[in-house]
Amino acid sequence: MIELRGVSKSFGAKRAVDHLDLTVRPGELFAFLGPNGAGKTTTIKMICGLLAPSGGTVTVGGFPASSAEARRQLGYVPDQPYLYDKLTGREFLRFVVEMYGVDREAGTARIDEMIDTFEMADFIDELCENYSQGMKQRVVFASALVHEPRVLVVDEPLVGLDPRSARIVKNMFVAQARAGAAVLMSIHLLAIAEELADTIGIVDHGRMLAVGSLDELRKQAQHDGSLEDLFLKLTGDGVHRAISPVARARLETPK
Predict the structure, then answer these.
(1) Which of 115, 148, 181 corresponds to the end of one domain?
(2) What are phi and psi of 179, to 5 degrees?
(3) Of all helices (H) and strands (E), which one includes residue 10?
(4) 154-210: per-residue pLDDT in tens?
(5) Domain span holding position 44
(6) How many structural domains does the chain have?
(7) Residue 172 three-state SS
(8) What whole-number distance in Å separates Cα of residue 100 and Cα of residue 147?
(9) Fewer Cβ close by (within 10 Å): the C or N end of the chain?
(10) 192 and 130 assigned to the same domain
(11) How far apart, in Å, are the Cα atoms of 5 and each of 15, 40, 52, 207?
């Protein structure tokens, strides 16, 4: 589970995240939406322990996000993935499993499973410097999952992917949630969020405007339309409204 309570983050006089509440439960695929500069990446970095909040609490699997216990449960794919050019994809995955302390035999089995899942057999033993963007992204996703995390956090997962790689990644999201992982994806492609997400959260200026299923969002916005229509209604006029009672009731529901 991912849980944020009253989380704020300021950079000097600028407040990037403003008293944000957010919960992603096991088995839930949560789409985190907002305009550019809304605070999504800052929030994700706090969840992953890369930034400390200025206020509030962030927990992953019941542990503070900055703790080693939280990081062991977390798989993270940043918006700008990085690979070591002079390693092969297999060597990079081996590096990751050793970093997480996975037993060598179990690690080898997991690497083989990831190669199969992401259809990488044809290129996994080539140097990463020779990979296309889609190949690199598949290896990065595999590296986020190879230690079997209970929480998966992904920032803009489909940027630069060819249709085949995008389909593999989308199937992976659904499979992880069905296996019981808490999955949070920040994404600009509203059609993908509408297709895949169990729950959608819309944030702007660091505040949660609405959260729930698509039907719940329609009720909160008092507008019957597509996710794109709802998104533009909530964010397009620049009105920063407090979270609705329906959304607040969802956030405050006991575990």
Answers:
(1) 148
(2) -80, 0
(3) strand 2-11
(4) 998 887 778 888 888 889 989 999 999 999 999 888 888 999 999 999 999 999 999
(5) 1-73+153-255
(6) 2
(7) helix
(8) 7
(9) C
(10) no
(11) 16, 15, 14, 12
Complete DSSP assignment for 27-64: T-EEEEE--TTSSHHHHHHHHTTSS--SEEEEEETTEE
Asked if 241 and 139 sit in the same domain, the reply is no
Pairwise CA distance, residues 211 & 217, whole Å: 7
For tokens 């305009």, the residue is: 35
Total residue length of the chain: 255
CA 116 to chain centre: 22
Say which amino acid occupies 34: G
The pTM of this model reads 0.85
pLDDT tops 50 at residue 214: yes
45 pLDDT more than 80: yes
Q: What is the CATH number of the domain that holds 29?
A: 3.40.50.300
Q: Are residues 253 and 182 in the same domain?
A: yes
Q: How far is CA 91 from the centre of its chain?
A: 25
Per-residue model confidence as pLDDT tens digits over 81-115: 789 999 999 999 999 999 999 999 999 999 999 99
